[in-house]
Amino acid sequence: MRISLRAGERIFVNGAVLKVDRKTTLEFLNDVTFLLESHVMQAEHARTPMRQLYFIVQMMLMDPNSIGAAMQLFDKAHPAMLKTYSNRDIIDGLLEVEELIGRGRSFEALKRIRSMIPIEDHILGEINNAPGGITKFEPPVRMAAGA
To answer: Where is the signal peptide (predicted)?
Structure first.
């Protein structure tokens, strides 16, 4: 697999952070777990349940040494989300994410979660704009950046 990076761009590979000083192409010759900087969500942006789930799965990829703690968070957040949402696309997506995580396919799970964020944004927008809608969103899961 070949990945091209721009000058100053970072990539997270097997828990290590690499930053390139000039445009470069990396070629991975074996299995590797990586995440491009452009796909990394900062903790302060994990303000909705789907974004929190993204952040949890992201931690599985970025810090393989802390996968146990991230799995515990996933095991708490995921069932709560299944009970909360009624949208069929989100429920189906969450079931697919659970299956991917169970098979150790965190990268694919992350992509699937990313595809559901716009659906969640639409749902939350409808709730916020409805008469008597919520004025403040309180996420169900609290986590630290290093969790």
So the answer is: none
Q: Tokens 């409808």 appear where?
A: 126
Q: What is the pTM of this model?
A: 0.77
Instruction: Identify whether residues 58 and 74 lie together within a single domain.
Output: yes
CB atoms within 10 A of CB 53: 26
What backbone phi and psi angles, to 5 degrees, belong to 120?
Answer: -65, -40
The DSSP-derived string for 51-99 is HHHHHHHHHHHH-GGGHHHHHHHHHHHHHHHHHH---HHHHHHHHHHHH
Band of pLDDT at residue 126, cut at 50, 70 and 90: low
**Confidence at 142, pLDDT banded by 50, 70, 90:** very low
Q: Could you tell me which of 32, 1, 4, 39 has the C-alpha nearest to residue 20?
A: 4
For residue 145, being part of any structural domain is answered with: no
Number of structural domains the chain divides into: 2
Q: How many residues does the chain have?
A: 147
